[in-house]
From TrEMBL:
The gene is Slc30a6. This is ZNT6 protein. The keyword Ion transport applies. It comes from Upupa epops. The keyword NAD does not apply. It holds the Pfam family Cation_efflux. InterPro entries: Cation_efflux, Cation_efflux_TM, Cation_efflux_TMD_sf, CDF_SLC30A.
Amino acid sequence: GTIHLFRKSQRSLAGKLAHEFRLVAADRRSWKILLFGAINLVCIGFLLMWCSSTNSIALTAYTYLTIFDLFSLLTCLISYWVMMKKPSPVYSFGFERFEVLAVFASTVLAQLGALFILKESAERFLEQPEIHTGRLLVGTFVALFFNLFSMLSIRNKPFAYVSEAASTSWLQEHVADLSRIICGIIPGLSSIFLPRMNPFVLIDIAGALALCVTYMLIEINNYFAVDTASAIAIALMTFGTMYPMSVYSGKVLLQTTPPHVIGQLDKLLREVSTLDGVLEVRNEHFWTLGFGTLAGSVHVRIRRDANEQMVLAHVTNRLCTLVSTLTVQIFKDDWIRPSLSSVPLANNMLNLSDHHVVPMPPSSAADGLGALTSTPA
């Protein structure tokens, strides 16, 4: 054959990232995210300059929320990229776990930033520097306006799902208790305060209020220590808000079964085991593939005289109502079970190549029946 002295070099990591970025940027839906990302970088630059000029660690802690907002926009961009990509031989289940990883990384980085603020605040308590309030309120309202505007203008599907599915933070619980008291006095406010408040909006407003109190106390009494106290409060609120979401996304990355669907899965498996021709359901494994997406695999042993395609259709019809990506393996019953020693398999036994596998793409129950096929032996 032909000898190639110089092989074509593979594309570098930077080249691959640039190619995928161009793929996302070609979609008009991502233009708004890119615009907000550029404005976010400008805001972060101004806020960091004002943090340096005011010497306020509370404003620095609040600026970290704007940096987290940049990670949130990046996660939204990854979500659009995931929707464009199709499953590949390497990623047979698709790319949904990338957006889970993006949410996990963003929340963990926000918590690390909060820990850094706590460490710096502990050092400031020993020697409290003077705080200049010239740009303190300006930075507060610039950060608050941009965070709320970008959060309410862009539908961030991954963070919207996680904020609803994760457990409530201590800040949400305290605000909910306060809201019940207020709504008991003024019932008309129940439609605004009683539903579960968005944790990101809540922490933005709470941080801005802490900075306003800081500004007033420094202007009135030159009480500089309140800046450090506000920084600690913002850091604790940030950590408490991000922790439940990082725990939830971490469990998804660990491929655990969501607790709220275990009972439903047990019920469906019991129904499958009672189907005509089914002898045993074994090796069932279900896990969360992405946000709101459940994947699973199950082995079904059937009678030798049973119709594989018919049993396959009934099994997938029952399970696909809950499991969107499903793999079913059908095994016919073996009359003679060999021992675990090195005894040759009988001719009437089915080895691994005789099973039927049906990977189910995400679809409705009605569509699933029409797409049922089996892999020939």
